[in-house]
Design a protein that fits this description.
By secondary structure, this protein is an alpha/beta fold. It is built from ten helices and eleven strands. Helices cover 35% and strands 15% of the residues. Bound molecules: zinc ion. Residues 8, 10, 81, 85, 121 line the site of zinc ion.
């Protein structure tokens, strides 16, 4: 079974965990490391013949258009992660519309593909922000991959939605983040912090379980998760520091194993039945 490999292309300082310490207005003053880390991911995918979907942040695409072109040149899908990485939960509908359209305008200059996919920063499409669905459709988005089908996380998740891809609205498919069902409990196996936290064997077991239950896993990573040398920012809470820095040095080696043991493709190929 084919699973989906996706990358949220953002720099190490764009994350929600750092948003209070490094506000958006200071981003241009930070040391950018996104190109180097993304090129390492591209190299890994090329060696393992993985086609992936790259949800590129508009702010990054504006500064690194050549990187977006290189992702496309290597045969991957370009999708949008919004422009400014503000969470939907902190935006008014009109602000979200502007943020999304700005990201699409930037990506249209950097890629020849029609951008069809969207992933909200920090999976912030929740019950409270379902107003975003109409805006996504109006902006030409055909699939969303922002819903984490769990109920335990304080910042994201919708507990009682389907675990397999499903129509979110007319003309808009949802590709929810990977979650396995174990003894009636929902256990994430979608990548990111979970991939760094779990022993590799647990990720493998949970993903096999999803595939055995007939579901592809929507898997994701950030380029900064392959970069143990990124600057450490003082002032982060212990919980956030753990989530952000835990096991960064192991991600690349684990990813090599994962793409050798599972089959992955892009979201567009999955939706096309390939
Ligand atoms: Zn993000």
């Amino acid at each position: 079974m084919k699973n989906v490999m996706s990358v949220d292309v953002e720099d190490w300082f764009c994350v929600y965990n750092l948003s209070r310490l490094i506000p958006f207005a200071d981003w241009d003053r930070c040391e950018s490391r996104v190109e180097r880390s993304t090129l390492r991911l591209l190299d890994l995918f090329r060696r393992h013949r993985v086609e992936a979907t790259f949800f590129v942040l508009g702010w990054v695409a504006e500064r690194f258009a050549d990187l977006v072109r290189e992702i496309e040149r290597q045969g991957h899908e370009i999708a949008t992660h919004g422009y400014s990485h503000r969470l939907l939960t902190f935006m008014q509908p009109e602000e979200f519309r502007e943020d999304l359209d700005r990201s699409l305008a930037v990506l249209a200059r950097a890629t020849t593909q029609e951008v069809r996919g969207f992933r909200a920063p920090s999976f912030s499409l929740t019950r409270r922000t379902l107003w975003a669905v109409d805006i996504l459709r109006a902006s030409g988005i055909r699939y969303d991959s922002s819903i984490f089908p769990v109920g335990f996380h304080p910042d994201y998740g919708i507990a009682d939605v389907e675990l397999a891809p499903y129509p979110l609205a007319e003309g808009l498919i949802e590709l929810p983040m990977g979650v396995a069902e174990v003894l009636g409990q929902k256990v994430p196996c979608a990548g990111g912090g979970y991939f760094r936290l779990y022993p590799y064997a647990l990720t493998r077991w949970l993903m096999r379980r999803c595939n055995d239950q007939g579901r592809p896993v929507m898997f994701y990573l950030h380029p900064w998760e392959l970069d143990p040398g990124q600057p450490r920012v003082p002032g982060m809470s212990p919980a956030r520091r753990f989530r952000h820095y835990n096991n960064l040095a192991r991600t690349e080696e684990r990813l090599e194993r994962l793409v050798s043991e599972f089959s992955f493709t892009s979201a567009r190929n999955l939706l096309a039945g390939q």
